[in-house]
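Internal tracking record. Fields below are filled automatically when a chain is submitted to the structure queue. Please do not edit lines marked as system-generated. If the sequence contains nonstandard residues, flag them in the REMARKS field before resubmitting.
Queue: standard
Priority: normal
Entity type: single polypeptide chain
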Amino acid sequence: MNYELTNQGAQTRFVRTFEKSTIMPVKLNLSISEETAKRIKHYAAKNATTVSKIAEDQFNKLTLKPKAKGQTFAGKYAGTLKHHIPDIDQAKDEYLKEKYGL
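SYSTEM-GENERATED OUTPUT FOLLOWS
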């Protein structure tokens, strides 16, 4: 990110520019059967992608932790409590009996 100061008469402007960073690809040689190579090339062409992109996506699925999509805190920990929570009606009855001496 770069900042540039420009002076236009009575006005002074700051302009912020962004530089795009790119990841340089690394070559990786794989040995697979000819039939598999034909099928994956056909699949890539049919789906408007490349064999390299398919391989990278699959390698990422194998090696990266999955992201929890839309999982709430409660959803993540639901069912992990080991304490017994009594029936709410029973607890209310006991409270009222104790409160009013019934």
